[in-house]
Every structure is written in C-alpha cells, then in structure tokens.
Amino acid sequence: MKKYILVVACCLSLVGMKAQATEEQVEVPDLSRIEVLNLRTAQEIALAGNPDMVSAQARIEQARARVNQAVAAWWPSVDLTAVGQKERLSDSAYETSQALASLYGATADRTNDNFSTGLQATWLLFDGFFRNFNEKKARYDEEANISGLLNSQRLLVVSVAEAFLNAQLAQTNVDIAKADKAFYTRQLEDAQNRYDVGAGPWGDVLNIKVQLNSAETNLMLNQREFEAAGYGLAALLGIPDAAFPAHVRLEALDREFVTENFEENVEQLLQEALVARPDVRRQELNVKQAEAGTGLAEAPFYPTVQLAGAVNGARQGDVSVTGDDFGNSVSVNIAWNLFAGGADKARLAEAKQAKREARYALLNLRNQVASEIRQDIALLEAAQEQVRLQRETVGLVEENRDLAKNEYEAGEASLVRLNEAQRDLSTTYGRLAQALVGYHRALQRLDSATGRNLTGLVMENGQE
Fold first, then answer.
1. What SS3 state is found at 321?
2. Any bridge partners for residue 83, and if so which?
3. What gap in Å lies between CA 69 and CA 75, rounded to an integer?
4. How many domains, the chain?
C-alpha cells in the first residue's frame, strides 16, 4: 500500500511541475470597440498590454519570494532521515567478528541488514544579526522592484506619448498633403478649361501638372511615414504583429488647442519631483540595501550560536524499529571564526564602498532630475511661443494665398506667384502642426520629469 501511495505522489508531483512549466498566455489588447484612438486610451492600453510591464511584475514576485526565503531563516529546521543498508563484511572483519562471537558461544553473520531512522532539529539562535540585515535587504529589494515597475510605467507612458504624437503629426501631414493635392487638382481643371477655350496658355497646364505630381509624391511619402509611425506605436501598446486593426484611426490633431502659460513655482516643482519620482525612490532604497549589505558583511565578526536536538533509532536485521532502539541528544553549538585570511575585512570594505557608491548615485540622480525639469520648462515655454507665432503666421499666409488665387483667376497675377503662395501655405500648416506637437511633447516630458504622468491612469496592478 505504501508503494502505491509513493507512486501516486510522484505522479502528482510531475503533473504539478508540468503545469507550472506551461507557457503563460499574454493578454492581447482588445481594440474591437475603439474606432478613434486618443492619447490617454493609448497609454492605458500600453500599461495593460506591454510585455515589459509583465516582466517587471515578475521581478516583483521574485523579490517577494526572496523576502519569504529570508524570513524562513528565523525558524528552526527539522529533518527526517531514514537509512536502509546491506553490509557484507570483509574477510578480516568477518574473522574478527567470529572470534568475538565465539567468546559468548555465538556465531557472526557475514552479511547484515542495518536500518536506522532519525529526526533532527536545529535552531540558529544568534548569527551576528545576519538574518536581520538579510531580511531588511530583501524587503528593500522588493520595494525597489515595485518602484522599478512604477518607473517603467512612467517611462512607457511618455514613450507612448512621443510615439502617438509622432504618428499624429504624420497623420496631419497626410491631411495637409491631401489638401495640397486637392487644390492643384482644381487648379488643373480650371487651367485645362481655360486652355480649351483659348483663354489660357498651355504652359500653365504643364506647370500645374508638375505641382500636382509633386503634391502626390509628398502625399505618398507622408502616408508611408504615418504607416511606419503606427507600427512603432502599436509595438509599445503590445498589439500582436505591431499592426493596428484596419478600423482604428488616431484622433486628429487639435489645431485650436489652447496653450496655457506655465505659472508653477520651479523650486516647489523640484521638491515634488524628488518625492513623486519612482526612480528616485528606487535609488533611495538601493542606498538602504547597501546599508543592510554593510550589516551583512559585519556578521562574520560575531560568533554563531545554534541549538540542536536529535532523536535517532537503529536496528540490525529488522526494519521494525521499536522504542527501545531510539536515543536522543540535545546540544548548544558555538562557532566563532578567528581568522579567515582577511576575507571578512575585504568583504566589509567592499560593502562600505558599495554604500558610498549608492549614496553618490542618488545625489547624481537628484541633480539630473533638477536639470531635466528646468530644461523641460524652458522647452515648454519656447514651444508655447512657437505655437503663438505659427498661428499668427497661418492667418497671414492664408490671406496671402487667397489673394494670389483671386488675382490669378482674374488674370492680374502669374501662376508662379500662386504656386509660391500655395507652397508657403502648406509649409506653414506643417510648421503649425510641428509646433503643436512640440508643445504637447514638452508638456508630456515635463509631466514625466515631475512624476505626474501616471496620475489617473489605470495600471495592471490596480494602482492609480
């Protein structure tokens, strides 16, 4: 019966191992209900579907398991042993055994079956505070990995914003190129009609055809750039094969977006960033880990005290061990290494330098955060001014293009002037789109630099 139980237990163990080895299925983002994709939705989809976020979550679970391993060291260890041994004595040992047995009128067997079983318990009472610092280090590591996940999410959100805005700019350039093509198509019809009735030269028809071909070329190039930008955005969102479904379109760039003046206190913003940034928090935890590492390195300078107890039984020739075959022992073991060739001192020196490195790395990161925020504020203010100037320029160029068009149709201006005015208009539209995207990009970067860009976003671990 015991054999059958053992076989069943082994089978269940193998089944469990196989189940754990099964590849985890990654959740695929559902875009079936989305027709127009905006930036906020794209960021939420990326936080839920990007494979790097799943990897970061797995690192947290690994760190949590290491905490449990460190906590386990505080508990006693209990081991059950059992030995079954078949022994055949050598010739000399057998002769000695026979000689001893003959003294009592008995005989000795050359082959013996020996059975023993035992239960041992050990409890480490003192280890130079090694367990204490090891547990602290493991908990700091878990918290650091949680901060690492948040920082990965922060960087992913700003990366999605960059990719989305680039795709949005490419989409806007496609719309500008389409409008340019439509304008020259109408002009070609008018020029052809004029030529057909003898009111216009053939050169105007040829000139406009050249401009139309150029507009079609720009349209094709912009469409390819938009397609390429879409692939990059889809990859960040974790969409299979890095391709959006055919029904999904990006939200159009709002040309009437109202830019707001930056009025926040810079010093207060810097202090807020040092508290909110998860990478700063992670580096602070790295410093604490290094401090715990110093405690670990000091542990070998102390003695270790261990309590041990054992119950052992042995029987020869019969597996049925009875109470009369058991004995027990209890001991307190103390060990103190007095010299190890200087290895302990070297490990302590290494740990102290690791702590020093972590502290200066934190100082450097704080300086980088301050620099990043100040640069982003300057870029945001410049982008806002650029938007204002480009909007003003668009109004002037639109008026100039309409004037040139009316003058050409009235025969008061040449086609060259109209073409120049149209090119200026298309270029100005493009510059306005770039300025708007630059403003949104600077705003997203500043939010990322201050650690605000995760506010309100729904993340996979349920946090906001």
1. coil
2. 116
3. 11
4. 1
**Residue 30: band (very low, low, confident or very high) from pLDDT cuts 50, 70, 90:** confident
Give the distance from CA 360 to its chain's centroid. Answer: 24
Q: Which of 400, 75, 29, 19 has the alpha carbon at shortest distance from 233? A: 29
Residue 329 has phi, psi (to 5 degrees) of: -150, 145
CA distance 264 to 267: 9
pLDDT at residue 8 tops 50: no
Between residues 263 and 375, the one the model is more confident about: 375
Please state, for a pLDDT cut of 90, what percent of the chain lies above it: 58
Which residues partner with 77 through β-bridges?
122
175 by Cβ neighbours in 10 Å (0-12 / 13-18 / 19+) ranks as middle
Q: How many Cβ atoms from other residues are within 10 Å of residue 234's Cβ?
A: 23
Residue 187 vs residues 179, 193, 302, 401: alpha-carbon distances, Å: 12, 10, 92, 13
Domain at 149, CATH number? 1.20.1600.10
47 in a structural domain: yes
Q: Residue 203 CA to chain centroid, in angstroms?
A: 60
- Computed on alpha carbons and rounded to an integer, the radius of gyration of the chain in Å comes to 39
Pairing of strands 249-250, 304-316: unpaired
- 425 found inside a domain: yes
- The structure's pTM equals 0.81
- Tokens of residue 303, six digits: 């003695």
Joined together, the tokens standing for residue 283 give 């580096």
- 320 and 392 in contact (C-beta within 8 Å)? no
CA angle 272–278–284, rounded 5-degree value: 90
Q: Which of 233, 172, 163 is nearest to 429 (CA)?
A: 172
What are the pLDDT digits (tens) for 165-209? 999 999 999 999 999 999 889 888 888 888 888 878 888 888 889
Copy the structure tokens of residue 173.
């350039």
- Identify the domain containing residue 235 by its residue range: 26-75+128-301+341-450
The conformation of residue 325, written as its DSSP 8-state character, comes to G
For the CA atoms of 347, 352, 358, 360, what is the dihedral angle to 10 degrees?
Answer: -140
pLDDT above 50: residue 262? yes
440 burial (CB, 10 Å; 0-12 / 13-18 / 19+) is buried
Q: Residue 42 is which amino acid?
A: A
- Asked whether residue 105 is assigned to any structural domain, the reply reads no
In a domain, 371, yes or no: yes
